[in-house]
Amino acid sequence: MAKQLYEHMAVGDRSQAASPVGLPQAIESNPCASSLRSPHEIRAIIESESRIFATDEEKFQALVEEWKSNRGPQSSASDLSMAFAYQQIVGMGGAAVPLILAELEERVDHWFWALSAITGADPVPESGQGIMKEMADAWLQWGVKNGYR
Amino acid sequence: MDIDKARQQIDAWFPALAAQGYRITSSADVSYNCISWAVGETNRRWDIAPGYYWPIKPRARAAQSLIFAFESVGFKILRELDSDTASNLAAITPEPGIEKVAIYVIGKNWTHAARTLENGKWTSKLGDYEDIEHETLEGFEMFYGKAKYIMAKTKVPAAAVSG
Protein backbone atom coordinates (compact mmCIF):
# COMPACT_ATOMS: atom_id res chain seq x y z
CA MET A 1 0.00 0.00 0.00
CA ALA A 2 2.73 2.41 0.98
CA LYS A 3 4.66 1.65 -2.19
CA GLN A 4 1.56 2.21 -4.30
CA LEU A 5 0.91 5.57 -2.71
CA TYR A 6 4.50 6.62 -3.23
CA GLU A 7 4.37 5.63 -6.87
CA HIS A 8 1.13 7.49 -7.27
CA MET A 9 2.87 10.70 -6.23
CA ALA A 10 6.21 9.99 -7.83
CA VAL A 11 4.80 9.84 -11.34
CA GLY A 12 3.85 13.43 -10.88
CA ASP A 13 0.07 13.20 -10.91
CA ARG A 14 -0.54 16.93 -10.95
CA SER A 15 -4.26 16.58 -11.62
CA GLN A 16 -4.92 16.57 -7.92
CA ALA A 17 -2.35 19.22 -7.24
CA ALA A 18 -3.60 21.74 -9.75
CA SER A 19 -5.17 23.85 -7.08
CA PRO A 20 -2.79 24.74 -4.28
CA VAL A 21 -4.58 22.73 -1.67
CA GLY A 22 -3.55 19.58 0.14
CA LEU A 23 -2.64 16.12 -0.91
CA PRO A 24 -4.83 13.41 -2.34
CA GLN A 25 -7.18 12.11 0.32
CA ALA A 26 -5.36 8.81 0.74
CA ILE A 27 -2.09 10.58 1.49
CA GLU A 28 -3.67 13.27 3.62
CA SER A 29 -5.24 10.68 5.92
CA ASN A 30 -2.14 8.50 6.14
CA PRO A 31 -0.14 9.12 9.32
CA CYS A 32 3.03 8.15 7.47
CA ALA A 33 2.31 10.55 4.62
CA SER A 34 5.43 12.63 5.03
CA SER A 35 7.63 9.63 4.36
CA LEU A 36 5.63 8.85 1.24
CA ARG A 37 5.88 12.23 -0.44
CA SER A 38 7.90 12.43 -3.57
CA PRO A 39 10.92 14.69 -3.53
CA HIS A 40 9.72 15.95 -6.90
CA GLU A 41 6.59 17.61 -5.58
CA ILE A 42 6.55 21.36 -5.87
CA ARG A 43 5.82 22.37 -2.32
CA ALA A 44 5.70 25.58 -0.34
CA ILE A 45 4.48 26.69 3.03
CA ILE A 46 1.84 29.36 2.51
CA GLU A 47 -0.09 30.84 5.41
CA SER A 48 1.57 28.25 7.66
CA GLU A 49 0.21 25.34 5.62
CA SER A 50 2.21 23.04 3.37
CA ARG A 51 0.77 23.12 -0.14
CA ILE A 52 1.69 21.53 -3.45
CA PHE A 53 1.70 23.27 -6.78
CA ALA A 54 1.48 22.17 -10.38
CA THR A 55 4.34 24.39 -11.57
CA ASP A 56 7.22 26.45 -10.25
CA GLU A 57 5.43 29.52 -11.56
CA GLU A 58 2.33 28.82 -9.47
CA LYS A 59 4.46 28.28 -6.39
CA PHE A 60 6.42 31.46 -7.08
CA GLN A 61 3.29 33.57 -7.53
CA ALA A 62 1.80 32.23 -4.30
CA LEU A 63 5.01 33.02 -2.42
CA VAL A 64 5.23 36.51 -3.92
CA GLU A 65 1.67 37.19 -2.81
CA GLU A 66 2.41 35.83 0.66
CA TRP A 67 5.57 37.96 0.95
CA LYS A 68 3.86 41.15 -0.19
CA SER A 69 0.80 40.73 1.98
CA ASN A 70 2.86 40.23 5.13
CA ARG A 71 5.35 42.98 4.46
CA GLY A 72 5.93 45.48 7.22
CA PRO A 73 7.64 48.87 7.46
CA GLN A 74 11.17 47.45 7.78
CA SER A 75 13.85 49.85 6.62
CA SER A 76 16.33 47.40 5.18
CA ALA A 77 15.94 45.00 2.28
CA SER A 78 17.97 42.59 4.37
CA ASP A 79 15.02 42.40 6.81
CA LEU A 80 12.44 42.07 4.04
CA SER A 81 14.43 39.23 2.52
CA MET A 82 14.42 37.30 5.78
CA ALA A 83 10.66 36.72 5.48
CA PHE A 84 9.90 33.02 5.20
CA ALA A 85 8.09 33.36 1.87
CA TYR A 86 11.06 35.25 0.40
CA GLN A 87 13.45 32.62 1.73
CA GLN A 88 11.39 29.93 0.03
CA ILE A 89 11.76 31.81 -3.25
CA VAL A 90 15.53 31.89 -2.75
CA GLY A 91 15.31 28.17 -1.99
CA MET A 92 13.80 27.54 -5.43
CA GLY A 93 17.25 28.27 -6.83
CA GLY A 94 17.78 28.74 -10.57
CA ALA A 95 14.12 27.95 -11.35
CA ALA A 96 13.17 31.21 -9.65
CA VAL A 97 15.57 33.44 -11.59
CA PRO A 98 13.50 33.93 -14.79
CA LEU A 99 10.36 34.32 -12.69
CA ILE A 100 11.99 36.95 -10.49
CA LEU A 101 13.30 38.80 -13.54
CA ALA A 102 9.82 38.83 -15.08
CA GLU A 103 8.41 40.13 -11.80
CA LEU A 104 11.14 42.78 -11.64
CA GLU A 105 10.34 43.91 -15.16
CA GLU A 106 6.68 44.24 -14.20
CA ARG A 107 7.35 46.19 -11.01
CA VAL A 108 10.58 47.28 -9.37
CA ASP A 109 10.87 45.72 -5.93
CA HIS A 110 13.40 44.21 -3.56
CA TRP A 111 14.41 41.18 -5.62
CA PHE A 112 18.11 41.99 -5.68
CA TRP A 113 18.96 40.02 -2.55
CA ALA A 114 17.32 36.90 -3.96
CA LEU A 115 18.99 37.29 -7.34
CA SER A 116 22.42 37.77 -5.79
CA ALA A 117 21.91 34.93 -3.34
CA ILE A 118 20.86 32.48 -6.06
CA THR A 119 23.30 33.47 -8.80
CA GLY A 120 26.26 34.85 -6.88
CA ALA A 121 26.27 37.82 -9.26
CA ASP A 122 26.13 41.54 -8.48
CA PRO A 123 25.76 43.39 -11.80
CA VAL A 124 24.69 46.75 -10.33
CA PRO A 125 27.34 49.37 -11.16
CA GLU A 126 28.54 51.58 -8.33
CA SER A 127 26.83 54.60 -9.89
CA GLY A 128 23.49 52.80 -9.77
CA GLN A 129 23.67 51.49 -6.22
CA GLY A 130 20.48 52.19 -4.31
CA ILE A 131 18.67 53.61 -7.34
CA MET A 132 15.93 51.03 -7.70
CA LYS A 133 15.24 51.54 -11.41
CA GLU A 134 18.92 51.35 -12.31
CA MET A 135 19.38 48.27 -10.12
CA ALA A 136 16.45 46.60 -11.88
CA ASP A 137 17.79 47.54 -15.31
CA ALA A 138 21.22 46.13 -14.47
CA TRP A 139 19.66 42.81 -13.42
CA LEU A 140 17.39 42.65 -16.46
CA GLN A 141 20.38 43.19 -18.74
CA TRP A 142 22.28 40.55 -16.79
CA GLY A 143 19.34 38.19 -17.36
CA VAL A 144 19.50 38.70 -21.12
CA LYS A 145 23.27 38.24 -21.19
CA ASN A 146 23.04 35.03 -19.21
CA GLY A 147 20.19 33.47 -21.15
CA TYR A 148 17.45 33.86 -18.55
CA ARG A 149 15.22 36.06 -20.71
CA MET B 1 -3.16 53.01 -1.39
CA ASP B 2 -5.51 55.75 -0.23
CA ILE B 3 -4.71 57.73 2.87
CA ASP B 4 -7.34 56.04 5.06
CA LYS B 5 -5.95 52.60 4.25
CA ALA B 6 -2.42 53.85 4.83
CA ARG B 7 -3.44 55.21 8.22
CA GLN B 8 -5.11 51.93 9.19
CA GLN B 9 -1.95 50.06 8.31
CA ILE B 10 0.32 52.45 10.23
CA ASP B 11 -2.01 52.35 13.24
CA ALA B 12 -1.81 48.55 13.21
CA TRP B 13 1.99 48.56 13.03
CA PHE B 14 2.47 51.27 15.64
CA PRO B 15 -0.50 51.44 18.03
CA ALA B 16 1.41 53.57 20.53
CA LEU B 17 2.22 56.09 17.80
CA ALA B 18 -1.43 56.12 16.75
CA ALA B 19 -2.36 57.01 20.32
CA GLN B 20 -0.12 60.08 20.37
CA GLY B 21 -0.91 61.19 16.83
CA TYR B 22 1.01 61.61 13.58
CA ARG B 23 0.46 63.05 10.13
CA ILE B 24 1.05 61.28 6.80
CA THR B 25 3.07 63.60 4.57
CA SER B 26 3.75 61.57 1.42
CA SER B 27 2.53 58.63 -0.59
CA ALA B 28 4.28 55.26 -0.42
CA ASP B 29 7.53 55.15 -2.40
CA VAL B 30 9.99 52.30 -2.75
CA SER B 31 12.72 54.61 -4.15
CA TYR B 32 14.05 55.66 -0.76
CA ASN B 33 14.05 54.45 2.82
CA CYS B 34 14.27 56.03 6.24
CA ILE B 35 18.05 56.40 6.13
CA SER B 36 17.92 58.18 2.77
CA TRP B 37 15.12 60.37 4.09
CA ALA B 38 17.10 61.22 7.22
CA VAL B 39 19.94 62.59 5.08
CA GLY B 40 17.54 64.35 2.71
CA GLU B 41 17.73 62.00 -0.28
CA THR B 42 14.73 60.62 -2.13
CA ASN B 43 16.36 59.08 -5.19
CA ARG B 44 18.34 56.19 -3.73
CA ARG B 45 18.12 53.76 -0.85
CA TRP B 46 20.82 53.66 1.79
CA ASP B 47 20.96 50.03 2.76
CA ILE B 48 23.52 47.39 3.60
CA ALA B 49 21.95 44.76 1.29
CA PRO B 50 23.81 43.88 -1.94
CA GLY B 51 23.39 46.42 -4.74
CA TYR B 52 22.08 49.23 -2.54
CA TYR B 53 23.98 52.38 -1.59
CA TRP B 54 25.99 52.42 1.60
CA PRO B 55 28.65 55.11 1.99
CA ILE B 56 31.16 53.11 3.99
CA LYS B 57 32.69 49.66 4.24
CA PRO B 58 31.97 47.19 5.62
CA ARG B 59 28.21 47.15 5.14
CA ALA B 60 27.02 46.12 8.56
CA ARG B 61 23.86 46.02 10.60
CA ALA B 62 25.59 47.16 13.77
CA ALA B 63 24.42 50.57 14.97
CA GLN B 64 28.03 51.72 14.69
CA SER B 65 27.89 51.22 10.93
CA LEU B 66 24.97 53.64 10.63
CA ILE B 67 26.76 56.10 12.92
CA PHE B 68 29.75 56.00 10.56
CA ALA B 69 27.39 56.37 7.57
CA PHE B 70 25.87 59.53 9.07
CA GLU B 71 29.35 60.79 9.98
CA SER B 72 30.26 60.49 6.29
CA VAL B 73 27.77 63.29 5.57
CA GLY B 74 28.79 65.51 8.46
CA PHE B 75 26.73 64.37 11.45
CA LYS B 76 28.41 63.91 14.83
CA ILE B 77 27.19 62.02 17.86
CA LEU B 78 25.37 64.37 20.21
CA ARG B 79 24.14 61.90 22.80
CA GLU B 80 23.57 58.24 23.53
CA LEU B 81 20.16 58.23 25.16
CA ASP B 82 20.08 56.74 28.66
CA SER B 83 18.15 57.01 31.89
CA ASP B 84 19.06 60.70 32.36
CA THR B 85 15.80 62.04 30.97
CA ALA B 86 16.68 65.73 31.39
CA SER B 87 19.83 65.39 29.29
CA ASN B 88 17.98 63.22 26.81
CA LEU B 89 15.30 65.87 26.43
CA ALA B 90 17.89 68.51 25.62
CA ALA B 91 19.40 66.27 22.96
CA ILE B 92 16.13 65.32 21.29
CA THR B 93 14.66 68.80 21.26
CA PRO B 94 14.92 70.33 17.79
CA GLU B 95 17.07 73.47 17.62
CA PRO B 96 17.10 76.19 14.96
CA GLY B 97 20.05 75.87 12.63
CA ILE B 98 20.83 72.31 13.73
CA GLU B 99 19.81 69.14 11.89
CA LYS B 100 19.35 66.17 14.18
CA VAL B 101 18.87 62.51 13.38
CA ALA B 102 17.77 59.79 15.78
CA ILE B 103 18.99 56.22 15.32
CA TYR B 104 16.69 53.44 16.50
CA VAL B 105 18.14 50.12 17.56
CA ILE B 106 17.05 46.65 18.54
CA GLY B 107 19.84 44.97 20.43
CA LYS B 108 23.02 46.32 18.87
CA ASN B 109 21.59 46.70 15.37
CA TRP B 110 20.13 49.78 13.71
CA THR B 111 16.55 49.52 12.56
CA HIS B 112 15.39 53.02 11.64
CA ALA B 113 16.27 56.69 11.58
CA ALA B 114 14.21 59.85 11.99
CA ARG B 115 15.17 63.51 11.55
CA THR B 116 14.04 66.86 12.85
CA LEU B 117 11.95 69.34 10.90
CA GLU B 118 11.98 73.13 10.90
CA ASN B 119 8.63 73.10 12.71
CA GLY B 120 10.12 71.35 15.73
CA LYS B 121 8.65 67.93 14.91
CA TRP B 122 10.25 64.74 13.66
CA THR B 123 9.84 63.05 10.31
CA SER B 124 10.20 59.37 9.42
CA LYS B 125 9.94 57.29 6.27
CA LEU B 126 8.25 53.98 7.10
CA GLY B 127 10.13 51.38 5.07
CA ASP B 128 8.71 51.31 1.53
CA TYR B 129 5.62 53.13 2.68
CA GLU B 130 4.72 56.72 3.59
CA ASP B 131 6.61 59.58 5.26
CA ILE B 132 5.06 60.76 8.49
CA GLU B 133 5.48 63.72 10.80
CA HIS B 134 5.49 62.86 14.52
CA GLU B 135 5.75 64.80 17.75
CA THR B 136 8.14 62.60 19.67
CA LEU B 137 10.53 59.68 19.12
CA GLU B 138 8.22 57.30 20.99
CA GLY B 139 5.75 54.77 19.62
CA PHE B 140 7.84 52.76 17.13
CA GLU B 141 8.73 49.86 19.40
CA MET B 142 6.87 47.19 17.43
CA PHE B 143 9.27 47.28 14.48
CA TYR B 144 12.08 49.67 15.32
CA GLY B 145 12.75 49.35 19.03
CA LYS B 146 13.80 52.61 20.67
CA ALA B 147 15.78 55.69 19.69
CA LYS B 148 19.27 55.22 21.10
CA TYR B 149 21.61 57.74 19.47
CA ILE B 150 21.11 61.38 18.53
CA MET B 151 23.45 62.84 15.94
CA ALA B 152 23.59 66.47 14.82
CA LYS B 153 25.15 68.80 12.30
CA THR B 154 24.88 72.48 11.52
CA LYS B 155 22.39 73.20 8.75
CA VAL B 156 23.86 74.54 5.57
CA PRO B 157 22.00 77.77 4.69
CA ALA B 158 19.92 77.45 1.52
CA ALA B 159 21.83 80.35 -0.09
CA ALA B 160 25.12 78.51 0.45
CA VAL B 161 23.70 75.36 -1.13
CA SER B 162 22.31 77.12 -4.19
CA GLY B 163 25.14 79.55 -4.63
| Backbone CA Rg of chain B | 15 Å
Strand order of the largest sheet of chain A: 1-2
* Uncertain ranges of chain A: 1-37
How far apart the termini of chain B lie comes to 39 Å
Strand % of chain B is 25-35%
Describe this structure in words.
The complex is a heterodimer of chains A (about 150) and B (about 160). With about 150 residues, chain A is mostly helical. Chain A is about 50% helix and about 5% strand. Chain A has a two-stranded antiparallel sheet with strand order 1-2. In chain A, strand 1 and strand 2 form a beta hairpin. The longest helix of chain A has 14 residues. Chain A is globular. Chain B has about 160 residues and is an alpha+beta fold. Helices cover about 30% and strands about 25% of the residues of chain B. A seven-stranded antiparallel sheet of chain B has the order 1-6-5-4-3-7-2, sandwiched between helices. Chain B starts with a helix and ends with a helix. The model of chain B has no long low-confidence stretch (mean pLDDT about 95). The interface between A and B is medium-sized, with 25 and 31 residues.
Key structural traits:
heterodimer, A: 149 residues, mainly alpha, two-stranded antiparallel ribbon, 2 strands, 51% helix, 7% strand, globular, disordered N terminus, B: 163 residues, alpha+beta, seven-stranded antiparallel β-sheet, 7 helices
List the SSEs and their pairings.
The complex is a heterodimer of chains A (149) and B (163).
Chain A: H1 2-10, H2 25-28, H3 33-36, E1 42-46, E2 49-53, H4 56-69, H5 77-80, H6 84-91, H7 96-106, H8 112-119, H9 132-145
Antiparallel strand pairs in A: 1-2
Chain B: H1 3-13, H2 15-20, E1 22-24, H3 34-38, H4 63-71, E2 76-80, H5 85-92, E3 98-106, E4 109-116, E5 122-125, E6 131-134, H6 141-144, E7 146-154, H7 158-162
Antiparallel strand pairs in B: 1-6, 2-7, 3-4, 3-7, 4-5, 5-6
